[in-house]
Amino acid sequence: MSVSGETLVYLCGAHSLGFAAFHLAFWKLFDWPAALRQTNVATRAVTQILNLRLIHVFLGVAALCFALPGDLLHTRLGHALLAGMALFWLGRLIEQFVFLRYDKPLIHVLTALFALGALLFGLPLTPWAT
After folding, report:
1. pLDDT, position 127
2. 8 closest CA partner among 96, 109, 125
3. Domain around 95
């Protein structure tokens, strides 16, 4: 079974969109209003600002994947973006083992999704992605 490069790029967009939605849920998931009250003002602000910027990045990458799949597949700039995102997800996968070493099913699902991101963004750069 062969998957086209454009299909892979669309899957990259869906992956990014999913993570944008996941990060939008952080306030409720982690009860940030209450949990962050226990930290100082700077930590509270930086945590939320970084999360909002990450949502912005995921939405931007998703938009590029859906709007310009051919450019991502056939230009040096597109390859650089795909490679950068593959490295982003590979780094996040490694950080999972460094910072979040819990034996919980949800953690294992996230670990698999980080690996999937590295794979999805890397595959369109291979010769067998048609």
Report:
1. 87
2. 125
3. 5-123
**Token digits of residue 129:** 């992605």
pLDDT tens profile 11-55: 999 999 999 999 999 999 999 999 999 999 999 999 999 999 999
3-state secondary structure 66-114: HHCHHHHHHCHHHHHHHHHHHHHHHHHHHHHHHHCCCCCHHHHHHHHHH
Count of CB atoms situated within 10 Å of the CB of 107: 13
Per-residue model confidence (pLDDT) at position 1:
54
| Contact criterion met (CB below 8 Å) for 66 and 13 | yes
Where residue 3 falls among pLDDT bands split at 50, 70, 90?
confident
Domain annotation covers residue 130: no
**Number of domains within the chain:** 1
